[in-house]
Design a protein that fits this description.
Strand content: 15-25%
Shape: extended
Distance between the termini: 84 Å
Radius of gyration: 23 Å
Largest sheet: 5 strands, mixed
Number of strands: 7
Helix content: 40-55%
Structural class: alpha/beta
Order of helices and strands: HEEEHEHEHEEHH
Number of helices: 6
């Protein structure tokens, strides 16, 4: 009887192993969760890279686009795929698309040397030595890119390097979505109606 009791934990472990293997074989290997798509960019405040140092000016990632669409690119000087995708970022800059860089877990001097060597496609570079923005954005590795509309909402995400024109087009097309009025914008007639309602 005691011998059978000792085999129960082994049986449970074997059943769990079979379930796990079965689940992992059915799982799509290229699945990349886009959990933040449709949500606001996290309000992460980071210093701006200025001449190879983390400057005194800080910017909230959410407002880094200054009210216009942008691509937020998470990169690092130590990241080999970041070098491969760099020409695509330069092409985005040439098209007039705002690209905000976030130097993920990188030293500012190394980031500056990387940009001096390959060219600087960014409207600004934010220094994220501790990886705070990476945590807030749910980054699984660098590079990753996020298309952010003028309202500060993430409309598309790309995990991994932007290698082809199709990769870039998917992000830029998401930025072309019809613009909406700011929530505080009202027509004069709407303002009058609101004032009248408040007086009554």
């Amino acid at each position: 009887m005691n011998r059978w009791l000792t085999l129960i934990p082994l049986g449970v472990l074997a059943a769990l192993a079979v379930l796990f293997i079965g689940w992992s074989l059915k799982r799509e290997p290229t699945f990349r969760p886009d959990a933040l798509v449709g949500q606001a960019v996290p309000e992460t405040v980071l210093p701006i890279l200025e001449n190879g140092v983390a400057g005194n000016r800080n910017v909230d990632l959410k407002t880094a686009g200054v009210g216009r669409p942008m691509i937020v690119n998470i990169f690092a000087s130590w990241c080999a795929p970041c070098r491969i995708e760099h020409p695509q970022l330069l092409a985005l800059e040439a098209q007039g698309i705002a690209v905000v860089g976030v130097a993920y877990k990188d030293e500012p001097e190394a980031t500056q040397a990387f940009l001096d060597e390959l060219g600087d496609p960014f409207t600004m570079v934010l220094v994220d030595r501790e990886g705070r923005a990476g945590l807030d954005l749910g980054v699984s590795g660098v590079p990753e890119s996020f298309a952010v509309d003028a309202m500060g909402r993430i409309v598309a995400k790309s995990s991994g390097p932007l290698l082809t024109d199709a990769d870039v087009e998917r992000l830029t097309q998401a930025l072309v979505a019809p613009s909406r009025a700011l929530p505080t914008a009202r027509t004069p007639a709407e303002l009058d109606a609101q004032r009248n309602a408040a007086q009554n």
